[in-house]
Amino acid sequence: MKPAYGILSWMGRMRGAWLGCALIFWLSGCGDTPSVGPDGPAEVTEMAEKSTVASDSAPKSTASRISSEPISNPHEITVTSAVQQPTEEQTTASDLTADVAATDWLFFRGDFAGRGYVKSATLPEKLDVVWEYWEPKCSYETSPVVCDGRVVTTDLDGMVRCLQLSDKKLLWKTPTKFGFTASPSIRNGKIYVGDNDGKFRRLDLATGAIDWEYQANAQIDSAANFQGDHVIFGSQDANVYSLNTADGSLAWKHTIDDQVRCSIVVDAGRTAVAGCDAMLHVIDANNGTGLAKIELSSQTAVAPAMVGPLAYFGMENGEFVCAHMEEKKILWTWKDERQEASIRGSASVADDVVVFGNRGNRVVCLDRMSGEVRWTYRAKRSVESSVLIVGERVYVGDTAGNFMVLGLKDGNLLQNIELSGGITSAPCLSGNRLLVATQEGIVYCLGATDK
Description:
This protein is mainly β. The protein has helices spanning 7-19, 25-28, and strands spanning 45-47, 57-58, 117-118, 128-134, 145-147, 150-154, 159-164, 170-175, 185-187, 190-194, 199-204, 210-215, 225-227, 230-234, 239-244, 250-255, 266-267, 270-274, 279-284, 290-295, 305-307, 310-314, 320-324, 329-334, 348-349, 353-358, 362-367, 373-378, 388-390, 393-397, 402-407, 413-418, 428-430, 433-437, 442-447. The chain starts with 6 loop residues before the first helix and ends with a strand.
């Protein structure tokens, strides 16, 4: 059942939508002029003294264009692929993430490397709405996270909420002045998240109390990640920041030539940052040293999925790429030649395929070795949500509020759940339940209802 909205509720939702105008780059791409600090946007790596709360370029890929015949779908599209493919050694299944903990989903993509993939399915075959939570003056562009039976959300109105997973009971909420387009991350009983004013905070998971704050120079869209005792995030001020988790002091920062809007992924001691400067930056997550730069054909704000030396992600011009971070080159590319449909959500990488959505109303599944199309599914509206693969099923939402369950092998629609409000965030898994937040300000818990 959807909430019964009165005029005050409607006004609250409209306020959330107004705050969503801060996301105007989603209409114009991520190439807006960045707001930078006094040091400017020059490419540097800075090691900093601790403080209290602180106010090799590769040639562009010349991919050859090859056309793929329709496979099993009348809406099949054209594939663009480079000749070179990753080797078996580069892409063995052992490189992929192990199953995420059955009950905790601590990051935007579920795991450090951003793969959005859980092999063992505990979800029911048919999803029902177990509960839904709504408050006025609320709208979500961010994804929930779960730890120890607690669901944490951040909204466009500046509220951090903690709900009880079992029955949606509100445990606490912490108001802040500015809204959130960055999803929260959890580690060791602490919540880490940045806001639209550039303020990054650590909160206590048990109480919602703010432990410390750090002020960046521009909006933070980036969900944080961790390396050792550091927390790492990006900002529209063109910096990747690493803070000491204990007190929020600056450990290092790495500056690129344009905004950093992608969430942070970490694997093997490095992070891959896809920037608004149309470059993939590979950075040592321990000290901020630049390890590699790979030229791209477009800007992007999408978090890559890292698998060993490979990074998979889409871009504003509709191109999806597999990049080799050590060889500093693009291995293959895919693009729908019929239309330039931006890719705004992160991909999910399974053992042998990669799945993502685009603004051309498509969910696309590619062979992750070659970039060849396995299947496509035509959604009703734009697919800007990041994809989740659990077992042999694909879970993703569209901007009309359709939450789709597709077969991983063939892309067939297994279930469509009509939720209230567009879905641009990623689904979150906790055991036999999924959490989905919508632009109407509703958090849905999907699973099997008790008979």
